[in-house]
UniProtKB/TrEMBL annotation:
<feature type="region of interest" description="Disordered">
    <location>
        <begin position="779"/>
        <end position="849"/>
    </location>
</feature>
<dbReference type="Pfam" id="PF12451">
    <property type="entry name" value="VPS11_C"/>
</dbReference>
<dbReference type="GO" id="GO:0031902">
    <property type="term" value="C:late endosome membrane"/>
</dbReference>
<dbReference type="GO" id="GO:0006886">
    <property type="term" value="P:intracellular protein transport"/>
</dbReference>
<keyword id="KW-0863">Zinc-finger</keyword>
<comment type="similarity">
    <text>Belongs to the VPS11 family.</text>
</comment>
<dbReference type="InterPro" id="IPR057308">
    <property type="entry name" value="CHCR_PEP5_VPS11"/>
</dbReference>
<keyword id="KW-0862">Zinc</keyword>
<dbReference type="InterPro" id="IPR001841">
    <property type="entry name" value="Znf_RING"/>
</dbReference>
<dbReference type="InterPro" id="IPR024763">
    <property type="entry name" value="VPS11_C"/>
</dbReference>
<dbReference type="GO" id="GO:0006904">
    <property type="term" value="P:vesicle docking involved in exocytosis"/>
</dbReference>
<dbReference type="InterPro" id="IPR000547">
    <property type="entry name" value="Clathrin_H-chain/VPS_repeat"/>
</dbReference>
<keyword id="KW-0653">Protein transport</keyword>
<dbReference type="GO" id="GO:0030897">
    <property type="term" value="C:HOPS complex"/>
</dbReference>
<dbReference type="InterPro" id="IPR013083">
    <property type="entry name" value="Znf_RING/FYVE/PHD"/>
</dbReference>
<keyword id="KW-0479">Metal-binding</keyword>
<dbReference type="GO" id="GO:0030674">
    <property type="term" value="F:protein-macromolecule adaptor activity"/>
</dbReference>
């Protein structure tokens, strides 16, 4: 803490913060009158103010500070904020010192902005006070004057009128004006200086407006050739602030060029260790107009690879240097430059450019980098830098030889290259093959065939086939036909080229897979009068052997050809001989079917007119001896009742015959439905207005489909029906043992050891239904019989003739057609029973009720 002291003899400073003793320092040997010193802490350079006759002095703990030339004997000093009020005597000469006129002047000084803000004469001042933002001056006669501070805008307006722009700027800064407000003051100040011809001062003020004022406002003022130097100064500042655009950079470099300041230009664009305050691309473009070497240096310094390559190619034609430079670039930059400048480089340096593209489409590493990355030793997996060959194919449009080298290298590096790469390589092979000599054709033909045979080759077969056709490359065309199983196309090719040996070889090789090839060969030979006779003979021999074509169609095909009768004599003889043998076979088959038909009819007649004897002792389901109750069918199949109930799908069908009968009935039904559907289709087609819609509708319903069945022809269906009818030619009969209220015969358990015989006389009765073959669709009724097991059958010494319980054959007779259904009756044959015996059955406890 400091204490300032002023006396009439001097000014002193005491440091009262020390504990031992006070420290005194002489600030000045001159002092001041009473009330002529004040202290303040609002102004850093004015902590203590003393008013003397010649001026007002300011002091700080370090010593004397600034002073203000306010003359006159000081009567009073008062300070408030940054304003200092000075009351001083002002003597005007009047004929000697005693006769001079004395007046008082009140001056207000702005210490912060260092200028006088108010001056006025006053009467004798008794006191000056600062309160409520006013200076209150008490004068003689107890008059009180109040001095109020004007607002900032009024102050600035007054200063602008007086052209005191420097003062206005200080006031605006002290009042914390924003950047836009200050910029407007700087602009007015610069305009004022520009109008006075002070261009240097004006450009200094304009530079201060860079952040807010549009640069074009200043640039238009200094476009005169005599003012280029000042414009250069402004543009340099604009770049320094980083607000220059492309046009500004161009203008600045042009200014350097017009002023012939190449050193400044190089310093501006090439100086190292400085912040980049300009647009590099624009600088390179402008420098290129002045000096290509400087432009290259600038592009190389700032790693503008595109500009460097462009200048080297267009201005210096250094193609190999460009390739060396690109080979040092990172992968993405090298790839971009090759895509852009590849056509020119391939034109001027084809081999070097192709070699570099090979490296770029392999695992690319820039020149100068180690072949093995140190990160690979850490086990980290690095991404492979490899360009896509597809993106460079268009560069080789005028150089097919280099393109072939490039594509061959690509498929060696990656055999699974894209479809486009392989297709392009095949196309280039064929183009060169077509235009080359015999040796080149032989070598390139081998390459094409090897490529087509490569299983890893990812070429488009359809496109390759078209290319082979366009360039007339027969080897590749035939290979693709064979590999794609396009044998018909192979035949057309051989026929069009009249290569009958190849035609015959193709038929021999692939005729087993596609027999129609022989027919196509016959058509080809019939249309060409120059077909060899042995070729035609072999074709006809195979057609006759495999029956590929009816003889009439063969004769019709050969009728329009130049073939003679001697050429087809062997074929015709073979056909006639075969037809004769077939006729004999069919005649034998007719006789066989006729005999079978007669046998079936006889069997039907026997069923209708005589009894059917069931001799089966074994069940067809479990293969065990039959036991009562049992079920017999007219097809001579017999079952236990429980076996029949467990394995049958229907109570009216024999389980053994049911699958075959069902298959035959389905075939017949399918044929009837198909016939009905075709008849309906033709009927509707005759009346339809839109026949195409009707055909499409029936096509969707499967009318034109060829069902894949083993019995589609009428002859096969008839054969199956006849064979099935031999096993099941009549309807079945049924006799149920227990039917409750239906009236069926119930066999009592007490007669299971008695001989039983069954006879039926009505074929349409409920127990037995006999039907003809024509009524096979109706469901037959099974015969239910109770056949007891004879315990004496197993004794070899037993005389069956003496056994009263021996079973006679069970006979079933056909009942009269007009009779009504009757119950099956069981007739007991008892040897102990006599008609004349007076035996009373009612007294027998074991008799039947």
């Amino acid at each position: 803490m400091f204490l300032f002291v002023a006396t009439t003899a001097g000014s002193f400073l005491y440091n009262i913060t020390t504990k031992d003793k006070e420290f005194k320092q002489n600030l000045d040997s001159l002092g001041c009158e009473r009330n002529c010193c004040v202290a303040t802490d609002c102004i850093p350079e004015c902590n203590f103010i003393i008013g003397r006759t010649d001026a007002v002095y300011c002091y700080t703990p370090e010593g004397r500070g600034p002073c203000y030339a306010i003359e006159g004997k000081k009567k009073l000093l008062q300070i408030s904020r940054t304003y200092l009020v000075v009351v001083a005597e002002d003597r005007k000469p009047g004929g000697g010192e005693e006769n001079s006129i004395t007046s008082l002047t009140l001056t207000v000084l702005d210490l912060q902005n260092k200028f006088l803000v108010y001056t006025a004469p006053v009467r004798e001042v008794q006191a000056v006070l600062s309160e409520w933002g006013y200076f209150l001056v008490l004068t003689e006669g107890n008059n009180l004057l109040a001095l109020a501070e004007k607002d900032v805008q009024s102050k600035l307006s007054m200063l602008f009128k007086k052209n005191l722009y420097d003062v206005a700027i200080r006031i605006a800064k002290s009042q914390q004006y924003d950047a836009e407000g200050l910029s407007d003051i700087f602009r007015q100040y610069g305009d004022h200086l520009y109008s006075k011809g002070d261009h240097s001062g004006a450009i200094e003020q304009y530079i201060k407006t860079i952040d807010t004022l549009e640069p074009s406002y200043i640039i238009r003022k200094f476009l005169d050739s005599q003012l280029i130097e000042y414009l250069t100064t402004y543009l340099q500042a604009l770049h320094k602030y980083g607000l220059a655009g492309e046009d500004h950079t161009t203008l600045l470099i042009n200014c350097y060029s017009k002023l012939n300041r190449t050193d400044k230009l190089r310093e501006f664009v090439l100086t190292k260790d400085r912040d980049l305050d300009f647009d590099v691309d624009t600088a390179i473009k402008v420098c290129r107009q002045v000096s290509s070497a400087d432009a290259l240096t600038l592009a190389l310094k700032h790693r503008r690879h595109d500009w460097y390559v462009k200048i080297q190619l267009e201005d210096k034609q250094e193609y190999k240097k460009v390739l060396e430079y690109i080979s040092e670039l990172p992968f993405h930059d090298a790839e971009a430059n090759m895509k852009k400048y590849g056509p020119l480089l391939l034109k001027e340096a084809p081999q070097e450019t192709t070699d570099f593209l090979k490296k770029l489409c392999s695992n690319y590493k820039p020149k100068g980098e180690p072949l093995i990355d140190p990160r690979e030793f850490d086990g980290s997996r690095l991404e492979e830098n490899r360009a896509n060959p597809e993106e460079f194919i268009h560069l080789f449009l005028e150089n097919p030889d280099m393109l072939i080298q490039f594509l061959e290298h690509s498929i060696q590096v990656d055999p699974h290259e894209s479809n486009l790469v392989y297709n392009t390589l095949v196309e280039q092979y064929l183009q060169v093959w077509e235009a080359g000599d015999m040796e080149e054709k032989r070598q390139l033909g081998q390459k094409v065939i090897m490529l087509l045979q490569n299983p890893d080759a990812n070429y488009d077969r359809a496109q390759t086939l078209i290319l082979c056709q366009l360039h007339h490359f027969s080897d590749g065309l035939l290979y693709l036909y064979e590999d794609s199983k396009m044998y018909q196309h192979m035949m057309r090719y051989y026929a069009s080229s009249r290569d009958y040996e190849g035609l015959l070889a193709c038929c021999r090789k692939f005729g087993g897979q596609e027999p129609t090839l022989w027919v196509q060969a016959l058509n080809a030979c019939s249309k060409d009068s120059g077909a060899p006779a042995h070729v035609l003979s072999e074709i006809l021999l195979v057609i006759e052997k495999d029956r590929l074509l009816p003889p009439l169609l063969v004769i019709d095909a050969l009728a329009s050809s130049s073939a003679t009768l001697g050429d087809v004599r062997s074929y015709l003889l073979g056909v006639l001989k075969g037809e004769e043998e077939m006729t004999k076979q069919e005649q034998a088959l007719i006789e066989k079917y006729s005999a079978e038909t007669r046998a079936i009819r006889q069997q039907i007649n026997a069923i209708e007119t005589s009894n059917v004897i069931f001799r089966a002792n074994l069940c067809n389901a479990c293969n065990q001896h039959l036991e009562m109750p049992s079920i017999h069918f007219l097809c001579q199949h017999s079952f236990h009742q429980h076996c029949f109930q467990s394995c049958s799908e229907s109570d009216h069908e024999c389980p053994v015959c049911l699958p075959n009968n069902k298959k035959i009935m389905d075939i017949i039904k399918s044929q009837e439905q198909s016939r009905s559907l075709h008849e309906s289709f033709h009927s509707q087609l005759e009346r339809a207005q839109d026949g195409f819609s009707l055909v499409a509708d029936y096509f969707g319903r499967g009318l034109f489909n060829n069902p894949v069945t083993t019995a589609t022809s009428p002859g096969v269906i008839q054969k199956k029906i006849i064979e099935s009818a031999k096993d099941n030619i009549a309807s079945e009969a049924r006799l149920r043992l227990m039917e409750g209220s239906s009236g069926a015969t119930t066999q009592s358990a007490s007669v299971t050891d008695r001989y039983e015989s069954w006879s039926y006389s009505d074929a349409q009765s409920v127990p037995l239904a006999v039907k003809s073959v024509s009524s096979a669709r109706r469901s037959p009724q099974p015969i239910v019989l109770s056949v007891p097991k004879n315990p004496f059958d197993e004794s070899p010494e037993y005389d069956d003739a003496k056994n009263p319980f021996a079973e006679d054959e069970v006979a079933v007779e056909a009942a009269p057609k007009e009779s009504t259904p009757q119950k099956a009756s069981v007739k007991s044959i008892n040897p102990f029973e006599d008609e004349d015996d007076d035996y009373d059955k009612n007294l027998n406890p074991f008799g039947e009720d």
